[in-house]
Amino acid sequence: MDQHEQAIWVEKYTEMLDPARKSTRPPHMAYQRDRARVIHSASFRRLQSKTQIFGLNESDFFRTRLTHSMEVAQIGSGIVEHLALRDDADNYQAWLPSPYLIEAICLAHDLGHPPFGHGGEVALNYMMRHHGGFEGNAQTLRILAHLGEYTPQNGLDLTRRATLGVMKYPAIYEDLAEQDQDYQACLNLAPVTDFKTWNMKPWHPPKCLYQEEAAVFEWVLAPFNDQDRTLFLGLKQPPIPGLGQRVRTQFKAFDTTIMELADDIAYGIHDLEDAVAMKMVSRELWQAEVMQHPHFKTHRLWDDTMTDRLFSGSSKQRKHAVSKMVGLMVEEICVVEQEQFSHPLLRYQACLPEAQAQVLELLKQFVFKNVITIPEVKGMEYKGQLIVMTLFEALEANADRLLPANTLAKFNQAATERAQKRVICDYIAGMTNNYASKLYEKFFLPKQGSVFDRI
User: Fold this and answer.
1) Which among 139, 211, 128 is positioned nearest to 168, based on CA atoms?
2) Please, which residues have CB within 8 angstroms of residue 85's CB and are 6 or more apart in sequence?
3) Count of CB atoms within 10 A of residue 250's CB?
4) How far apart are CA 160 and CA 104, in angstroms?
5) Cα separation, 237 vs 176, whole angstroms
6) Signal sequence span per UniProt (predicted)?
């Protein structure tokens, strides 16, 4: 990669708007600043009080979005280090992200997740369904481009390459919704009047970006030629219509594939550790649904010693097993090429071989089935959903009485109903689980709240 190409990818949006502000720092320092801006942002700190899987009051041991993001960053930098040492590394070495860059991308990947996990995400999407939608990854870009505190109007203002790496789903909400017949049918339903009876299942949002960030989206994609852009932005229909699956994007950038593998490994293995530690899954269930599964029997990546350590009751043995499982995945990651793309950042893709990919997917499904979808967890998700939707409705209807001064100023300056709703949405999306719960109690529980409580 020559200096001109490097300069393109370390450019910030504010530098494009005002070339006089262009930095002369070398690329590694630009990406180091990206990482620093993420770490020191308020959105990153708030992840310590946002749900990963278990409620924050369950224990101080289990993972939050913050510790999950830190683990994703560690795995991501490990993947880059591994890829740099592979025999075929000369093919893609010049385009590997630096450790600073991949850590910035990984640390930022969950910044936009709202309180109460995916339950909060779906609830906010329902409230914004006719006004641009809500989606956690789209909210992440919004923080990077507009809401973050490092510039007055352009958010955290990361480099172009870091911003590209965070964009998992390169499509605008309206473009996806327009092509999704199932979602269009939902949009035509009568509004729900009783949130307690609302079924969130059909309202999982399209994986998208917001129209409000379209200018930044265009800036990020500017270095790609027309053919690459058209292909990269292509959409695919769900394989079986009518099952609530969304129209999806098809492609991701090179750095994004590394981040997503790190995220999947952390989800499938580290979140499994929490489930085992909390005794939510038994050795017998693990044996039946993982060790005896046809995919694992075909690709037997470890023996029964791993099971013994995982369910030994010893935190040290369990941690040793988890570390070994992560290593088995990371050490097999390779880089393949999508020949239809000309630009290296779109052509190169990090991936797992079939054996490791199938076993990792098996672990993710095991956690999803036996932890995420059980009534105890879903019940907390339902509770969070009610809190989010009720707060949204109350704050919008009583903005002048209930919004804090700085948020009310934004609300009053908003020129359209959509813009006003986005202000409310941004405010709620930035809340932690605890803050949202306390605000709900202050407003709606007679014996809670005080004039001295700060909002």
Assistant:
1) 139
2) none
3) 12
4) 12
5) 10
6) none
Question: What distance, in Å, lies between the first and last C-alpha atoms of the chain?
Answer: 49
Check if CATH label 1.10.3210.10 holds for domain 3-49+62-256.
yes
Of 265, 317, 359, the residue nearest 68 (C-alpha): 265
Question: Looking at the DSSP assignment, which residues form a beta bridge with residue 349?
Answer: 336
Strand partners, 334: 351
User: Which of 3, 65, 51 has its CA nearest to residue 266?
Assistant: 65
Select from 213, 204, 48 the least CA-distant residue to 121: 204
Average pLDDT, the chain: 91
Q: DSSP assignment, residue 197?
A: G
Which of 64, 34, 61 lies closest to 46 in space, CA to CA? 64
Which two structure tokens, joined as six digits, stand for 160? Answer: 């172009």
pLDDT in tens, 102-138: 999 999 999 999 998 888 999 999 999 999 999 999 9
Where in the chain are the domains?
3-49+62-256, 260-372, 376-444
Look up the pTM and report it. 0.93
pLDDT band at 60 (very low <50, low <70, confident <90, very high): very low
Displacement of CA 98 from its chain's centroid (Å): 21
- Please compute, for residue 56, the number of CA atoms within 13 A of its CA located in the half-sphere on the CB side: 20
Cα dist from 95 to 30, 227, 343, whole Å:
16, 20, 10
DSSP one-letter code for 321? H
* Residue 433 or residue 452, greater confidence: 433
Rounded Cα distance between 392 and 34, Å, is 32
- The residues that bridge with 172 in the sheet, in sequence order, are 209
Q: Whose structure tokens read 């949006």?
A: 13
**What's the pLDDT score for residue 54?**
45
Task: Please state, as a whole number, how many other Cβ atoms lie within 10 Å of the Cβ of residue 308.
Answer: 12
**Residue 13 contacts residue 157 (beta carbons within 8 Å):** yes
The pLDDT of residue 56 is: 41
Q: Is the pLDDT of residue 159 over 90?
A: yes
